[in-house]
Amino acid sequence: MTSGKADSRPDKRLGEFELIAELFAPLSKGAPGAFGLTDDAAVLAPPPGHELVLKTDAIVEGVHFFRTDPPGDIARKSLRVNLSDLAAKGAVPMGYLMALLLPDWPDRAWLHAFADGLAADQAAFGLSLMGGDTTATPGPLAVSISAFGHVPLGAMIRRAGAQPGDLVFVSGTIGDAGGGLAVLKENRSAPELVARYRVPQPRLALGPELRGLASASLDVSDGLMADLGHIAHVSKVRIEVDAPRIPLSNALRGLWGEEAVARAAVAGDDYEIAFTAPASLRADAANAAARSGVAVTEIGRVAAGEGAVLLDASGREIVLARSGYTHF
Known about the structure:
Elements: H1 16-24, E1 50-60, H2 71-88, E2 92-102, H3 108-125, E3 128-136, E4 142-152, E5 166-171, H4 176-185, H5 191-198, E6 216-220, H6 224-235, E7 238-242, H7 250-256, H8 260-267, E8 272-278, H9 282-292, E9 296-303, E10 307-311
Parallel strand pairs: 2-3, 7-10
Antiparallel strand pairs: 1-4, 2-4, 5-8, 5-9, 6-8, 7-9
Helix pairs in contact: 2-3, 4-5
């Protein structure tokens, strides 16, 4: 894990090399190819008959988290948003690289809590830090992680592959993170929703169960309708979602009331898995959910055409002001 510029000092009481040795080198245990973070690069080989699945995501202060969020939660979110993508591809995680861009405000206690968050999730999900970079920045705190997983050769589930006649499914509940963000901005209290915003739940148990079952899959990060639109675009199909079937938590219904479905469908930050599968495999989808312990709900269908649309109980299209979150 390289140190960036020699004069970078993320904390005056803890130099960069001390930062790496004290906090991050211990996170590389269990990954021999990381060499204890003492080299400029690492080596990683998938199990025989498998291939690597690679993913990079970054989170930025003021965009994806608040400075006042617990540092361990920031660390866990930075890792989990990447693991969520691996899960949606049917991959099993192996390791990750991390670039940490530190302004001058995180102190030693903050950094220790951040590293503790990573350590907890490494133990929970079975992977290790393999390298990366630390550097100072005059801008906001940012964490960029590249995560690596493996799947059997040719088994990664792509966005392309949905076919007319397929069914559409989604894991968990939708909109909770968006509700949590709204609660934080409005200085209200809804701990269950705030927890979903700060610490998403990557569906790593479900992902491998979808190999050979899902015709297309992705994680829901920009918003359910926006992300299903990505599947529709690359698969050259139309995806129809029945609004009343979108799974919502009681906490979100209590927060947003009658607007809950429409707002949840475009809120983003869910990190659930949305996938399509042939209608003949409906029972297999239910079995995959049962084996993984992750709830899965059928919410619509794939048809000929283009785009993703939200339909009310009468089959009429619900016009949305936006389909989800966009960065630019």
